[in-house]
Design brief:
317 residues; mainly alpha; 3-stranded mixed sheet; two-stranded antiparallel ribbon; 10 helices; 5 strands; globular
Length: 317
């Protein structure tokens, strides 16, 4: 189809990570295993929180949301990437590309806002422990979670619409592992300065604003921890935030590096590696971080495994 003498493509070709067959097979096996671990790990975290009443707190309510976001984000990218590792023709239809951009961008935005919400939760837990249950009541937690999902989705919808209104002409080769925002914008055969401004604005609103809120929360948290007299009290307060802080450092770092300055963005290879990190490694690492560094989660695992052991023994006899 043609509009204003400019040809619009019906499908895109994703160049992926490598054109070498042996490398692609190796990556297929590696990423398939990683994806399976990601789905299993996050599913087990959600199940554990559901089954253990001691984890029915605001912190683990938000962690459940984070696990759902992680699995969904990985699923929006990894299955298609796995299929393309073994395919000779790595095509993705125009509509599918738009859908992938919408879901991956939206889920990424939801995660950033959700991490800011979780930072506020940790701030209240450390700085106002006596009023924690009053402040972080169920209604507020639900509203904060809804705000995270709605803000990420609305931003993604706007970015997807304005991106796919650009005429791509005959440019259909996306040098990326997925239909990533900057990679698609680069295909346009018209001036994209307005799109780059929109990306900058949305990055400030949906990335830098939550990051600043996280930063302010942890400044207050650290200030409060330093005022605690006992060493044991300081260690307990620090462990309350350690898992979340680890995820925040990993999650915000490279995204700020990638999206805040589109004109001086990293190389295409770096963009691909960053996308692999967020689509494959981060969703797999999050449940591990919260399991390994969290006493409550480890205690819940031990309790659940103990119950399963007892049940198995009874069935065996």
């Amino acid at each position: 189809m043609e509009t204003d003498n400019q040809t619009w493509v019906r499908e895109f070709i994703l160049l992926g990570l490598s054109s070498d067959w042996d490398t692609r097979v190796s990556l297929f096996i590696l990423f398939l295993i990683t994806y399976m671990v990601t789905v299993l790990g996050n599913f087990l975290i959600i199940l554990l929180i559901r089954l253990d009443s001691r984890l029915h707190t605001p912190m683990y309510f938000f962690l459940t949301n984070l696990s759902i976001v992680d699995v969904s984000y990985a699923t929006s990218i990894v299955p298609q990437m796995l299929a393309h590792f073994l395919a000779a023709h790595k095509a993705i239809p125009f509509v599918s590309c738009a859908a992938q951009l919408f879901f991956s961008l939206g889920l990424g935005g939801i995660e950033f806002v959700l991490l800011a919400v979780m930072a506020y939760d940790r701030y209240v837990a450390v700085c106002n422990p006596l009023r924690y249950s009053v402040i972080m009541h169920g209604g507020l937690c639900i509203r904060l979670a809804i705000t995270s999902w709605v803000s990420g989705s609305v931003n993604s919808l706007m970015q997807t619409v304005i991106t796919f209104q650009l005429p791509m002409c005959t440019n259909k080769y996306i040098d990326h592992i997925s239909c990533e925002l900057l990679a698609v914008v680069r295909l346009a055969c018209v001036d994209t300065s307005s799109n780059e401004i929109a990306i900058m604005v949305s990055s400030i609103v949906l990335l830098m604003t939550p990051f600043c809120l996280v930063l302010l929360s942890y400044i207050q948290i650290i200030s409060t921890i330093l005022k605690i007299q006992s060493t044991e009290g300081r260690k307990k307060a620090f462990h309350t935030c350690a898992s979340h802080l680890t995820v925040v450092v990993l999650c915000y770092g490279m995204t700020i590096f990638t999206y805040i300055q589109p004109h001086s963005s990293p190389s295409v290879l770096q963009e691909k590696l960053i996308s692999v990190f967020y689509a494959i490694l981060m969703p797999m690492l999050n449940p591990m971080i919260y399991s390994v560094r969290n006493k409550e989660v480890k205690g819940a695992w031990q309790k659940l495994l103990g119950q399963l052991s007892v049940l198995t023994s009874k069935l065996a006899t």
